[in-house]
Amino acid sequence: MAVQLFPTCLGDVVAQQTVVxxxxxxxxxxxxxxxxxxxxCCGQPAFNSGHxxxxxxxxxxxxxxxxxxxxxxxxxxSGSCTSMIRLHWRELFHGTPEAEAATRITRRVRELSxxxxxxxxxxxxxxxxxxxxxxxxxxxxMLRELRIKEAPRDVLRTIAGLxxxxxxASERCCGFGGTFSGRxxxxxxxxxxxxIDDMEVARIDVLVSSDPGCLLQLAGRMSRQGTPVRxxxxxxxxxxxxx
Amino acid sequence: xxxxxxxxxGTPLPPGWAKPAHQPDAFELTTTTFEERSAKTMAxxxxxxxxxxxxxxxxxxxxxxxxxxxxxxLRDQARQIRAHAIAKLPDYLDQWIDQAEENGTIVHYAADExxxxxxxxxxxxxxxxxRVVKSKSMxxxxxxxxxxxxxxxxxxxxxxxxEFVVQAMGDRPGHVIAPILHRTKDEVHExxxxxxxxxxxNEAEALTAxxxxxLRHAFLTADAGISGGNFLIAETxxxxxxxxxxxxxxxTALPDTHIALVGIEKLVPRRSDLAVxxxxxTGHGTGQQITTYVTVASGPRREAEADGPKRMHVVxxxxxxxxxxxxxxxxxxxxxxxxxxxxxxxxxxxxxxxAYGWVYGGPIGAVLTPLxxxxxxxxxxxxxxxxxxxxxxxxxxxxxxxxxxxxxxRRTDQDGFVPRGERLAFALWGQIWSRPLLYRASTAVAxxxxxxxxxxxxxxxxxxxLRRWTAGRDxxxxxxxx
Lengths: 243, 482
Description:
The structure holds two protein chains of two kinds.
Chain A: E1 2-5, H1 8-13, H2 16-28, E2 32-34, H3 44-47, H4 52-66, E3 74-76, H5 79-92, H6 99-108, E4 109-111, H7 112-116, H8 120-125, E5 133-136, H9 140-144, H10 150-156, E6 163-165, H11 180-183, H12 185-202, E7 206-209, H13 212-225, E8 230-233, H14 234-242
Parallel strand pairs in A: 1-2, 1-3, 3-4, 5-6, 5-7, 7-8
Chain B: H1 2-5, H2 34-42, H3 45-65, H4 71-87, H5 89-102, E1 106-110, H6 113-126, E2 131-134, H7 138-142, H8 145-151, E3 155-158, H9 161-169, H10 185-196, H11 204-221, E4 224-227, E5 231-233, E6 238-243, H12 247-253, E7 257-263, E8 267-268, H13 274-286, E9 293-297, E10 311-317, H14 340-344, H15 348-351, H16 362-373, H17 375-378, H18 390-394, H19 401-414, H20 420-433, H21 436-453, E11 458-459, H22 467-470, E12 475-476
Parallel strand pairs in B: 1-10, 2-3, 2-4, 4-7, 5-8, 7-10
Antiparallel strand pairs in B: 5-6, 6-9, 11-12
Helix pairs in contact in B: 3-13, 10-11, 16-19
């Protein structure tokens, strides 16, 4: 079994640990993996800002890198990047020479946790264990565009000693929203605070999500506030439980 | 004249009520930014808590209302009805006008806001209308009807309890269904006590009784009632109104003249369509199967009828609507104004309706305002969203709000309303990140810079590029462990 792991731009800049941890988990499962050469970014920052031309240019570079003639699954450790590729690339490349390739890639791209959820038996057999109280944050695009909700929870449930609690409003947006976080910092931070309030009520040790963007936002605010909750990617927690 | 009519019975209007309130300030859409307006609400902790509590509560009621039903199928049906009605709007409008005129209703068409104001003011002048009771109408907010009528000497009494408070405070409604969702009971208590001239008990029942006492008298003495309309039924020429306080029925039935100001997009082909749309409107608006009152205004009083208005006018409001027909944003006209998208919006939850600068707040406001007012005035609003999509999932008529907001962002770029700096930044970004080698170099530089700026794995300094991020947040840069 072989897969490709597309780090995404956040994985290349601020969430390198997430990508390394995803690789450790794949290693433990005996799944061969490699990073596609020449992949950059899915184009989402520009696409979601209404700038289709630069979005298309950037996405095209990644498309070329991913379209390598193989049919290996392409795993993405980010719900929103997965959503961008799976749902919006066809629209973005509609009527361009890349349209067909975009359709091909769309079929291969998988959000990481939903892929891991298909290997829960193999994961359990590795006896992952970690005594922590965990809350899961559903990221917006993963939940509402990809409709993935249970998969990451199923993965977390393979970890012995892990107590998974449902947060009061796990589906409410964290306030990141890409450029929104910089455009309206006060509103964005207030939205993060609403999430952090829920975490404090639930008395969790670790907040887990599958989107580096949400984690950047929530970890950043909690760091500033001194909130004693770690915010980590699912891959990181699973890797720690396997270590 | 007003001295004699105040003798009709009931409790005379307290002196302070003859000219309720001062006019609210002008809309701030073009004079302030979303950020500045948000800051005003966010600086009032009680308002923020009130908005969060009220919207959470309303959203929970809606969820509970449809548990165990085939909600999604109902929403699909509703979407089809709305899509059909809007696609054939000119035809249904003609049909509605024919039917309404047959019923004896006088029909007016207002192409824009100023025409709507002029038409209603003219009706008041022609018929010698001096006192008006008004039931809640967002369309009237769009055209700033109250100030236009007061300018020609008409006294207006908002009779929806929330709107009554809004009017007395010189405020504006903060939500399409719950106008004073951003206010607390204590604020209402203070307001009513001032109006009464003595301290009232700070209890909902006593405060409501105070308002009811004066409003009852206003109903009995008003020359005209002005309402909005939730639906226009093409096959019958009727205006349908949902209310919970009974004020809608009194407004439309008691005074000699009833004037309804209704957006043309409120058309539905048949009465039977309401079997689908009504429970969705009320379920998504207030979590009710049906509102306490459903009023169908079907024209003036007929011969041998004991009650009802002697004259009924309907002012059909276009004001930007017909321009959307057949275009990319036509689906915005499907909206039935239930407020559900406001209740689930995580941004609205923090900033309330006024932050959007005009009549409508939340996702639908961020869509309708630039469409109705023009990009030059409101292009910023499409940015005031995280595109989380919660609104799409709740909309009873399945308006793709996320896609419309994204489409508006594109339109903003096409129309040239994107700041030059932003355009250049994205163009440059596109040039660099579309070339894998340059991409690798740029990410290496970014990583290196962050490491340089970081202390203990955290960037918290006010780095020039990150100033807006680090004002309230750190940038956590983890040390890579393999």
